[in-house]
Design brief:
alpha/beta; six-stranded mixed beta sheet; 20% helix; Molybdenum Cofactor Biosythetic Enzyme, Chain A
């Protein structure tokens, strides 16, 4: 992998693994990530959250024929008058699910239900509430409808023979409905990504262990579990690994043999007992280990190699907030690319800060924020208060991250800032 790192260093101006600008991290990860390439065929009910492995070509058109967009009366638009009422004679009723059996004479109309097939010679539908009906005589006042109105055209949603969904699309609820609307029962998707994760530290307790002085219960594994579950990833939970080189080496080796990526929390700062970076250097390589950001400065990324297998390692900080911030900003986009998904740039929302925010240029800051709408309809954002990287409660209270970029300075009240919303990702 050293040649890959050399290429990265040559391609990225100012590449510094000891203090990488946050804006550069994803560019480095783009060069490190290798997407999975094994495919599976799954049914529609099992396709939610999976990534399409090939274009889905529509086998039929949707809708498969011209049909009525509403309940009304269908007729030939050429019969319309623009100055006087148009009088038509109703000769029958067209229902959804069955085709009208024959032609419709000039000057006649059909009462038609929403979704019913339009006979080939009828092209216009007038709503029921817009006409007067007297027996079988239907009167259309001038100006209430134009030729071609209220008609759904064959293939206006999807045309047979054209791509309905593209390779790399992550299938959401709407995509499942679209697949089913084509009569397709199974789709080809990339196999699930396999991610191993564990926490490190002698002070970390698993649930069920008695609390002792100086120790804390592990929260990061549960947060990482939730974040990975939202991505539909196959997970290998390896628990808590003590700060012992032999134990860490065994854990990294097992993870690299059984997973595509490894996520750890803790063990990547500058302390004497922080062994993750050392293990990375012994068992693989390190692309970078510090980022010019807050929170989350100690973030180590590289590879762990075992025989012919190599897993991409994300050594996250130990503080709970830093774990979530670095995951959302960097790990999640990288995992999506590994899953075979098309790249998705971060979607920032702009909101006005309700208070002054202190910020020095030279690093990217992610502050927990609460976005609301003002009485005047504008989006506003305030911080959750204490921005310490160990204040886990603040991530529960927040609905987004205020992103203060690398070269940005202090923010005055009323200034607009970027906000990365949690909806559907963390919340």
């Amino acid at each position: 992998m050293s040649s890959t790192l050399d290429q990265i260093a040559a391609a990225l101006q100012g590449y510094d693994p000891k203090s990488l600008p946050a804006e550069t991290v994803n560019a480095v990860l783009d060069r490190l990530v290798v997407p999975v390439r094994e495919t599976q065929t799954v049914g529609v009910f099992d396709a939610l959250g999976r990534v399409l492995a090939q274009d889905l070509i529509a086998p039929i058109s949707v809708p498969p024929h011209d049909n009525s967009a509403m309940d009304g009366f269908a007729f030939k638009g050429q019969a319309l008058s623009t100055t006087v009422a148009t009088r038509l004679r109703q000769v029958g009723t067209a229902y959804a699910g069955a085709a009208w059996p024959g032609p419709v004479p000039d000057g006649a109309c059909l009462k038609i239900m929403t979704g019913a097939v339009l006979p080939p010679d009828l092209d216009t539908v007038v709503p029921v509430e817009s006409v007067q009906v007297n027996g079988d005589e239907v009167t259309v006042p001038p100006g209430v409808v134009q030729t071609g109105d209220n008609r759904r055209l064959m293939g206006e949603d999807l045309m047979a023979g054209r791509p309905a969904l593209h390779q790399g699309q992550r299938l959401g609820p709407a995509a499942l409905g679209l697949i089913a609307s084509l009569g397709v029962a199974e789709v080809a998707v990339w196999r699930r990504l396999k991610v191993a994760y564990f926490s490190t530290g002698d002070e970390i307790l698993s649930l069920g262990e008695p609390l002792r002085v100086g120790a804390v219960y592990d929260s990061n594994r549960y947060t990482v579990f939730g974040l990975l579950t939202r991505l539909g990833i196959e997970m290998l939970d390896m628990g808590v690994i003590k700060d012992e080189p032999a134990a860490l080496q065994a854990a990294f080796g097992h993870a690299a043999r059984h997973a595509d990526a490894i996520i750890t929390s803790g063990g990547v700062s500058m302390g004497e007992a922080d062994h993750t970076k050392t293990m990375m250097q012994q068992l693989g390589d390190v692309a970078f280990w510090r980022i010019a950001m807050r929170p989350g400065r100690p973030l180590a990324v590289g590879h762990i190699t075992q025989g012919e297998r190599s897993a991409l390692l994300f050594g996250l900080p130990g503080n709970p907030v830093a774990v979530m911030v670095t995951f959302l900003a960097f790990v999640r986009p990288a995992l999506l690319k590994m899953m075979g998904a098309l790249p998705q740039p971060p979607l920032y929302t702009r909101a006005r800060s309700t208070a002054a925010l202190r910020k020095k240029p030279g690093r990217t800051e992610y502050q927990r924020g609460v976005v609301t709408r003002s009485p005047h309809g504008q989006l506003e954002v305030r911080t959750t208060g204490n921005q310490g990287s160990g204040v886990l409660r603040s991530m529960v209270e927040a609905n987004g991250l205020i992103v203060l970029h690398h070269h940005q300075a202090d923010v005055a009240p009323g200034d607009e800032v970027d906000v990365l919303l949690f909806d559907g990702v963390l919340a």
